[in-house]
Amino acid sequence: MRKTKLRPDAFTFPSVISACAGLGDLRISREVHQHAVELGVMSDLYICNALIGMYSRVGSLVDARDVFDGMARRDIVSWNSLISGYSANGEWEKAVETYGAMRMDGFDRLVGNGLIAMYCRFENLVDARRVFDMLVGRDVVSWNTIIDGYYQIGDFKDALQILIMLHNLFDQMDVRDSFTWNSLINSYVRRGLFSKGIDLFKSMKQGLDSNLFVGNALLDMYSKCGSLEDALEEFERMEVHDRGQRLDKATILGILPACSYVAAKRLGKEIHGCILKLNLECDVAIGNALIEMYSKCGRLDHTVCVFEHMNTKDIVTWTSLIFACGMYGQGDKALRVFTRMEQMGVMPDHVAFLAIIYACSHSGLVDEGKMYFKRMEQEYKIIPSLEHYACMADLLARSGKLEEAEVFIEAMPVQPDISIWGALLSACRIFDETLIAERVCERIMAFDTENTGCHVLASNLYAAIGKWDMVGKIRKSIEAKKLKKDPGFSWIEEGYVPDRKFVLQDVEEDDKKHMLFTHSERLAIAFGLLNTKPGTPLLIMKNLRACGDCHTAIKYISKIVAREILIRDSNRFHLFKDGFCSCGDFW
């Protein structure tokens, strides 16, 4: 163009300057700048702003400042370009100094908000806060940006300090913004301060109770803090307000974990229907959540169906199905799924190996479990974690290989925790192995821990072999530490089952028999038999491990009443049918 003697104008230079910035060539950039000076177009504001941006991108901040200082007239883009250049090149002090000069020149809030956002994006909260404090006439964007910056970086204390200031401003706002509250609720969740998050919601609920953005944050908070009833109630309230807006992916992912935890199968199926209506069934995260929900609601068939209909499967998808098969005692199916996963080219990770060893443990597949444990380390170069060693110890213990399990635990390269010894002690009690059990009890009592379950397990073991002096010693230790044993309770979706406490005491045998009759899983089964039609399968959930006597009793009950009884305890599923259990007594 220059060779043809055509004169570039104000529209030509910005495009050429942009190209120079993209090339990152300082020499060519200065040649274009010089040509603009020679042609006398440096009075054009648009060209000067483009030159500042160009020099900032090629790293020549001195040239950028020279252009800026030589401008007869500046606008907000001029200031913003120079400040951005300083920030992008790590010149934080000069960026703040320039911002101070800009304020004197009359530009403030718009650039200030941009600066706060930029500093937060680079995790420079010190300068972000300095700009925020200097800013006159802060608007809701200013507050939202700084609060969200603290939330994203995790500085919860300062976020709360800003919240105190925000409350004073909030009452004066004509239009209230849900984004601010969402950031603060998420901050509470991140720090585990769930009760404070709930209190916050109660204080700001007016006017925002139908906001989908806030509702999703609340669902996530309720699910993570274990307030499952509140999560379900919040979801139902959101559905009522959904007349004019669509529930989205975040809503679904917030409520499905709650359904999984309490085995709310009916609501889970309703949500599945919503997923189909919203065309979200192809989303991998949604599919994974459905797999978990159905697997924990006693429907392995639905779990497999969702899995097979997913067009895209990630490692979480495969691992979830392997875990599900393990929970139902279908170790052979879990092995086939793992093999299929490898054939599809999906690389198993440490969680996938944990899932397959878990499945082997709950199906008595000792050799297979050992083989996968060895493959994990030798073939896939994955270093076993404490969880992997614990699962292997559990595999050996459940299969009655108690001496091998004890040797394995003692030879572990990592320090075994109390839960590993507790699993071995539980197996010793099942297989009536008192010698190993006493050694394990001594190890458990050496832990200065507040694990009530292991203390109770050791106490029960000593009670079973008649060592009441040790029972008394352990109970005094429990009382001294003010530990509380979780009461056993079960529930069924047909109705409410109150908690039933049971304790192991030094009482007559007839009294012990009566205590066994009131175990919560038996009460739940009785309630289900009374309130469902003959032949209807029963699904019972229990927060603790089912006891051995109940396991035997339920096998007889399933045969007498001619029903399938599915028990989900803290470890796995037990499907009782015709007097047999799917676990094959490996539980």
List keywords for this structure.
587 residues, mainly alpha, 3% strand, 31 helices, elongated, five-stranded mixed β-sheet
Uncertain residue ranges: 165-176, 495-504, 506-510
Largest sheet geometry = 5 strands, mixed
- Tell me the structural class: mainly alpha
Overall mean pLDDT score?
Answer: 78
Please give the alpha-carbon distance between the first and last residues: 83 Å
Question: Can you count the helices?
Answer: 31
What is the quaternary state of this protein? single chain
Q: Estimate percent helicity.
A: 55-70%
Strand order of the largest sheet: 1-2-3-4-5
| Count of beta strands | 5
Shape field = elongated
Rg measurement, Å: 33 Å
What fraction of the residues are assigned to beta strands by DSSP? under 5%
